[in-house]
C-alpha cells in the first residue's frame, strides 16, 4: 500500500459523493429524518419508546446505509470498467479498499455527528456516557457496514444483486442484535448465533454508552472494529477487476 495513492482514492470518492447530491442527502439527512420520525411516533407514549429504541437505531442506521451505498458504489466502479483502469495503474487492492473505507469513514463521522447531535440536543435523548462516545460507536458501525459492503460487492453482477445481500446478511443481524428481544432472552441456538454477529456488539456498545458509562464498551467496540478489518481483508481477497 502507498499512502499517497490511498489518499488519492479517498479524495476521489469524496469528490464523487459531493457531486452525487441524492446519495449525499441519503447519507447525511436520512438518518436524522428517521430519528425525528421515531421521536414523533413515541413522544406521547410512556414507557418503552424513543429512549429505548434510539440507541440501537443509532447503531443500526449508519451500518445499513453504508452497507447499501458502499456495495452498490463499488459494483458500479467494476461494471463501468473504472476499477479495471484504476488497478492497471500502480495501485493495489489495499489502496482501493482502504481509500474507500477512509472516505466513507469521514462521511460516517459527519453522519453520526448530525444524527447523535439531533437525538441528544433536540430530541431529548438522555445518555449517561459522553456524546462523543456515541458518535465514535456510530462511526465504527458505519465503517463495518462499508467493509461488509465492499466484501459482498465482489459476489454481485448487478446493482439489484448487490441490494439482495441486504436480507441475507443484514436482516438476520437486525433480528438477533437485541432490538426486539434482549439477547439474553433469545433461545440458546439463536443466542449463540447472535454472539457471532458483529451488529450484536455494535448495539451492545451503543446501549452501554447511552445507559451507563460502562468501560466494557471498549471490548464491544474492539470486536466491531475487528469485524470491520476482517471485512476489508476479505474484500481485498475477493475483489475483482470487472464483472464476469
From TrEMBL:
Q: Which UniProt keywords apply?
A: Antibiotic resistance, Cell membrane, Membrane, Transmembrane, Transmembrane helix, Transport
Q: Which protein family is named in the record?
A: Belongs to the ABC-2 integral membrane protein family.
Question: Do the record's keywords include Zinc?
Answer: no
- What Pfam families has UniProt attached to this entry? ABC2_membrane
**Topology within the bilayer:** Multi-pass membrane protein
Superkingdom assignment: Bacteria
A Gene Ontology cellular-component term: ATP-binding cassette (ABC) transporter complex
The answer to whether keyword Transport applies is yes
Transmembrane residues, as ranges?
25-42, 48-75, 96-123, 129-155, 162-182, 216-239
Q: Where does it mainly reside?
A: membrane
Show the PROSITE patterns listed in the entry.
ABC_TM2
The record's subcellular location field reads: Cell membrane
The residues covered by the ABC transmembrane type-2 domain are 19-242
Write out the GO biological process terms: response to antibiotic
Q: Entry's PANTHER family?
A: MEMBRANE COMPONENT OF ABC TRANSPORTER YHHJ-RELATED, TRANSPORT PERMEASE PROTEIN
- Which lineage? Bacteria, Bacillati, Actinomycetota, Actinomycetes, Propionibacteriales
* GO MF: ABC-type transporter activity
Q: What is this protein called?
A: Transport permease protein
